[in-house]
Structure formats: structure tokens, C-alpha cells
């Protein structure tokens, strides 16, 4: 992320809007919103220098709840929209937020290419392994035997492992957090934002309405017993073999971000010359 | 001057894909430009990259031309492989001359049936002796037959091969000279009359390049796009050009990403564009609605090809009109602009950018393969001052309302980075402040506002090209304007008083302006390149038309000949 010198000390509340969230009481996303605003304060970014971009879904409602610039776009395309914004306006700090259905199903292709393109963006996915806004259908990260009206008896499909895919596709920073610890999530977002290139933070954020079983996550999560590695092979092994509840920064690469230089070297009259006969 | 000299001559260079007929055609056009002529070259090719059929269709003229003539005077076949596949697109008659290599075998029946005169030249043998390629022999031959000076052809080839191997250049020159030397043996020479004196600057430009230039002139500095035929040349021209003027082009992973990237760039305050063809526009339709709802200006250039589905990617049709106008969910007012000629691709695109920026609405530019991939020698289009940029709120006050309901429907926009202007752009219906709302009053107010800003806007005289008088009018749009214009000139020469109405602004509609343009018209001919008469039905839905309406609607890929239109006009509307 761009380092903008703090002009004033900001508090988390400076980044909160007066719009009341649509989320259910007890939703993990409240804590992620809080983690975002805490992270912004710690980063010391003026609200007008930040853009929060999202797609569609419960978690994608987040831009309106912040006092930054934001774009609540269409389902699955947040990363593409954010890419355009960041390339056109490299001076802004651009955060992308969304859920597992938005990011890994309808937006799956953009996820691959955003990792691969390695633009300086921070992508936070609130993963609750369910489509909440459409009232409880399985997503790409849902367990194969989870029963629902749309897929009775479960999908029978192996869940998608977003962290492994992020690594394989070229993401430069990979971390996992749990919404039950918003301070730790804030620290992950700060670290992700400060790391150059495409940073991917998966935050396990329970859906208390459609996945009440996820209330148990707080018992299951644990800090990663290792420090972040820059060795992709080592990270791959770690991500492929972990239990899915391993929290912390799991990979920090050193690939240079993609950012075309925007510099004028010719006039329109110069362009026209090529056509003159 | 020879007795047979002519003001305009039409030539086809045909062969299998990879035989170099497009290269030779472009060089011929460049030589014509250098010699002071006008002209154009269109391309017809099959889907194969190598080994399919390809033809460069040229018209070179002492006066400005923007479409092909009724028939071709000269056809040179570098080989006969698959050429019969587009026999229909190459009108020839008994006065035409076909030159082929005897080594290529017999002329295909579909070509022979046209009854043209026929001569043979051993193109491959001559090329082999020269150490060059048969397409260069053909180039020399055609240049001599139509009277282009040898020195100019040699200059053009030297210029285009200057960065290559000097041996290749020498071989090409020898091949061209052997073609030139062969010409007198054919007993056919129909040279062009000398060109008129050159006044002002001329360009040799394709519609796709002109659209790219117009986009940059309009202020576009960010492009995101996915490759597609026949729009790719626009993007390939823009990629380095944008870099020179401080902008950039991102190759996206698909069209869904392209348009969303463009929306992101524009939200950041940088005028943004994407270019595509029919299948890509279909993929972009959801996000196009987002640009409408969030009032984010973007421009989508759609270089139409034959449809539906994958259709005919390499050939032209005007059949994305319905999709461009109606293809979006909800009440979705937006702009649709169509260039009326190769040169007009520049102005139409530039205008579309300015309109989109000014009204904070997305615009579609409906070009097509015929315009986009045609290269034409034209007078440099005049620079047209187009006022008005984006209405930006530089100092937003407390309670800034991004979607404030204003009398003209245009709400000042704050750009990211501006303190106090923070808002969330949203595809959800919203209040003036931008907060999501499902309330009827907000929906109605925002729908009214988004419609009003386009309906009430003053589009000036650019909405259509109108000329002439009389009680007969031809109404057309886009690329069919060129043959219509030539047809009108011929009909006038036969005494018909007739007016042209070519619509550049397709949406929003301009009923009062068209009514004024049609005052005194009792009969109208509508010309369009679509099987379903999409344009006619669109006009019927939104405009008052004269009592007597005749429709000349035909699908691609065969282009309209001026004579097709003249005969409709002279027969009082009966085919």
C-alpha cells in the first residue's frame, strides 16, 4: 500500500459512517468492520485517501458502513473494479472486501487473476462458508455434507481452499484471521496493507443465522505455530496440510507489484502524425 | 490521358490467408495516398489465421470515397485456394479483368461464372526468379495497370520494410518491378485520372484507429479490455498510444473484468473506456447497468460483427442495435452513438466520451467491422470543440449528497482524495446521499433524475447528419451511411430531389429533431444491415415517420452497393 504520512491522529470512529448495518445480531462481520476501522486508524490514512470496494453479499455491504470512499458494485466483480481504480489512481489506498460466494464462486476468475497481477490491493474475504443474503445455500468453501434446500444432503463436493489457490496464483501476502478477535484481524489488515502487492486475508466470520454450528469456531481456532515464510514451496506445504483454523500471516512474498507508470511523453498531435499521408 | 482513364477504380487482391494479400493491399493504398489519391480498403477473410481465404478490397479514387463501388474492375488472385468462399462479396462483370497464376490451377466455377475477362501471369515463377513473394509481384502488376508511378510504389515498400532485412527489401523491390514489367503484356490498362490538387492534410487511417484517437482526444486515459475480433486493432493501437499520453491499458481476464475495471478507473476520476464486439457487450450488460445506477461515466466501443452468438467474427453487420439500446435490466437510460464513416469514428467516439463524462452516464459507440477494419485515405477531420467535462464537486460541504436531485439531473461528483466528499457508489437504489434505499420515493426520484439528465441534454447538431431537400428522404445510421450517400448523389444526378438523414445519436431518441428534419417528406427509405429490420422497428417505436416507408434491410456480410439503394429510390420504393 502507499505510505501516506499521517496528517493527524485518527481514531477508529473517524472511519465509521452513520449507516446502520443490515447484518443479523451476532454476525461476525460487525467485528470485521471494527477491524477495518481500527486498521485504518493505525495506518493513519485520511478517510478520503481510502477506497473500500465490494461486490454483493452480506459482507459486501461494508463500504457504506465506513466513512471512506467506496464502491458497492455487482456480484463477483469487486476485484476487477478495484484493479481499475488502483491502476488509474495509484495514490489511493484500495481495500476490497467480500464473502466466499462473491470471491470464490462468481468472482473466482477475477480472484485468480488479481493474485497473478499482483496489484497493490488488500483483499479481505469474510468466509462463512454459506450464502447468507440469499438465505442459506452452499458456497465453494462449504463442507460437502452440509444440508440445504438447494443441495439436499450436501453438495458432495470438496471445498475450495482459497489460501492454496491464492498462493498458486501469485498472491504476495496470505493470512487467515478469525472475526472473534477483531484486534488481531486489524493487525492482519495493517500488515497486509503495508505489504506491497496483492495481499489476501481470509477472515473466518461466522454466520450465526444459517451456520449456527460456526459458533464453535472460537474453540477451534489457534495461532499459527510458525512465523510467516517467503518460501512459496514451504508455504504451500503448510497451507495444504493445515487444519483450516491456523491463524496469522502464513506467507509473505517479495514479488514486485504491477503498477504501470503514468507519464506523459507525447502530445495528441504527435499521435496524429502516424496517420498523415 | 488514355481514353479508358477513370476517376475511380476498384481492385481485389485475393488469396489464401498468409499469402500476404492484406500486406500488398495496404501497400497499394499507401502508394495511392502518396500519389495524391483518396481511397479505401476493406478486408474480407475467413476465420483461419493461415490457409483460409482472404481478400483485400480496394477502391482508389481522384475524389473522396467512403464505400465500395458497385463492382470491381480488376481482381488479382495470388492463388485460388478457397477464394470461391467469398465470390458473393466480390461483384465482377464482363468488363472486369481477372488475373491469376496459371500454376494455381483452374479458376473456381463461382468466379468464372461472373463472365469477366481473364488473363494469366505466372506470379509464383516471377516471385521465385526475383527472390521475393508473389504478393509483391501482384502489387507491382496492379500498380502498373491502374497507373500508379513505379517510384511511389518503391518508396512505400522501402518505408514499410526499412526496419527489416535489406535483402528482403531488395527482393521485394525486384518482385514489384517484375510485376510492373508484366503489366503491358495483358493489353489492359485503365489508369486513374490524375488526382485533384491536394489541399490540407490527409490521413490514411482505419476506423478502429480513428476511434482510438477520438477516445484519447475525448480524454480517455484508462482502458481495460479483452481481445476480440474485430475490435482488437483499436486496443492494440491504444496500448502504446495511451502510454505516451500518460494513460494506460490493462488487458483484463475477460469482458466482465474489462468493464468493471473501466468503472473503477472512472470512479477514480480518470475517463475510462473498454472496446469489444457483440459477445463481449453481452457479457458486459450487467456491469453496464451498474454504471447507469452508480452514474459512473464509461464508454464501451462495440465493433459489431455478424451475430448472434459467435456468428461471423470477421465480417460486418448492424445487428447489435437492439442489444445496445434495450439490452439492460431495469429502466436504464444511457447513450448510444454511431459513427457514420471511417473518419467519423474519431469524432463519434470523442463525442461519446464527452457526453458520457458530462452526463455521468455510460455510452456505447456502435461501430462495425466494415468501418473498424477499413483503412481509408481521408481529409483530416476538422477539430470540433466539444464543451463540458465532468461536473466535479471540489469542495464538498457537510452532508454532501452525491446523488442530489438537481434540475438538470446531473449531480456534482466528488472524486476519491477529496476531503469531505466520501460516498459509496452503489448499484443498489439509493438516497441522494448514496445510502442504499428500497423506498419508492428514492427510486422514483433517482429514476427521474437519470432519465432527465439525458432527455434534457442539448446534443446540438451532432445528433445526425442531414443534408439536401425534397420530399424523399433516406434514413440510415452507422456504416450504411456511406453507400447511401453515394446512392443519393447518383439519384440526384438522375433528377431526384432527396435528403439524407443519418443518425449519429441512436439513444436517447430525438423525436422533435427528426420531425423537423422530415418536414415536407412524403416518402422515406430506411436502409440498414440487419435481417430483422431492427433500426426500422426502433424508429417505428419512437418516431413519427412519413406515410410511405420503404425498408431496405439486409443482413451481412455482403455490403450494400450504391446501386442497390439507387434502384430502390428510382423505382419509387419498389424493389
Q: What does this entry look like structurally?
A:
The complex is a heterodimer of chains A (277) and B (575). The model of chain A has no long low-confidence stretch (mean pLDDT 95). Chain A is built from nine helices and eight strands. Chain A is globular and about 70 Å long. Chain A is an alpha/beta fold. Helix content of chain B is 35%, strand content 19%. Chain B is built from 18 helices and 21 strands. In chain B, helix 3 (123-130) crosses helix 4 (134-146). Chain B starts with 7 loop residues before the first strand and ends in a 5-residue tail after the last helix. The chains are: A alpha/beta (277), B alpha/beta (575). At the A-B interface, strand 1, strand 2, helix 2, helix 4 and helix 9 of A face helix 1, strand 7, helix 7, helix 8 and helix 9 of B. Strand 2 of chain A pairs parallel with strand 15 (424-426) of chain B, so a sheet runs across the interface.
Question: How would you describe this structure in keywords?
Answer:
heterodimer, A: about 280 residues, B: about 575 residues, alpha/beta, Pyruvate-ferredoxin Oxidoreductase, domain 3, 4 domains, eight-stranded mixed beta sheet, seven-stranded mixed beta sheet, 18 helices
| Level-1 CATH class name of the largest domain in chain B | Alpha Beta
Strand order of the largest sheet of chain B: 6-5-4-1-3-2-14-7
Number of strands of chain A: 8
Average residue pLDDT of chain A: 95
**Portion in helices of chain A:** 25-40%
- By secondary-structure content and strand pairing, the structural class of chain B works out as alpha/beta
Give the CATH class of chain A. Alpha Beta
Spatial strand order of the main sheet of chain A: 2-1-3-4-6-5-8-7
- Contiguous low-pLDDT stretches of chain B (5 residues minimum) are none
* CATH architecture label of chain A: 3-Layer(aba) Sandwich
Number of helices of chain A: 9
Please, what is the CATH homologous superfamily of the largest domain in chain B?
A: Pyruvate-ferredoxin oxidoreductase, PFOR, domain III
CATH topology of chain A: Rossmann fold
How many individual β-strands of chain B? 21
Using only CA atoms, what is the Rg of chain A?
Answer: 19 Å
Query: Biggest sheet of chain B: strands, sense, closure?
Result: 8 strands, mixed
* H/I helix tally of chain B: 18
